[in-house]
Design brief:
The structure is a single chain. By secondary structure, the protein is α+β, with helices and mostly antiparallel strands. The protein folds into two domains: 9-130, no CATH class; 136-199, no CATH class. It has helices spanning 9-23, 25-28, 32-44, 54-68, 72-81, 88-100, 108-111, 118-135, 153-163, 167-172; strands spanning 138-143, 146-151, 177-185, 191-199. The chain has a two-stranded antiparallel sheet with strand order 1-2. Strands 3-4 form a two-stranded antiparallel sheet. Strand 3 and strand 4 (191-199) form a beta hairpin. Helix 5 (72-81) crosses helix 8 (118-135).
Amino acid sequence: MENKESIPLNIAIVRVINNCMSSKQRYKLLSKSNLAINIAKAVFDHTLCDGVASEEVISEAKKWLRKNVFVPAAILKQMDLRGGTLNYEGIKVLNDVEASATDGANMRRIINRLICTPACLKGVAKQIEREGDVIRPYRHIHTPYGEGIKFDYAKVTWLVINTFGLKDAAKEQKVNISASIDAMRITKNLCHTSAGLKMTDIGGKDPLQNM
């Protein structure tokens, strides 16, 4: 009696689709984009196995997006770069939009979120701050004019040089970096003074625009 190979269902499904693509001449003529579109439509089709896999398909798609697109660190980065246009309250609104799409009976869509919650973001932010304290340590100081923050100048300078891709070049030649200082009166009794470094070397590579 012939022993038939026992394989997991997911591998069997992949083999059936692959065999279908190779056996039908008109399928072979499909472009890669049309082939991809049709396969994706089939996966999301509610008539596939009477829709038994619909929720799991959405769940797997969310997992991929959370891992590769809506990463907490990436969201926090954009929140910083956009200067407060997106905050934790805005994230909560998006969470509520996703939660409102649930029918009430299935709570998995709320548990298995596409975008993490503000609490999750705050936890990741604390981790990033701890790592940042090692990369660019700073300390609170008191001056005759009030409280201040002082960075480790050497580490900050090297951080700017490394960020703009000039670490090796700086060991062999001079690198142009500009220093600036600015002050502003916020209220009658409150003002601030800040100083910083800016890369002005033409050999520097913009880390944000990758140019």
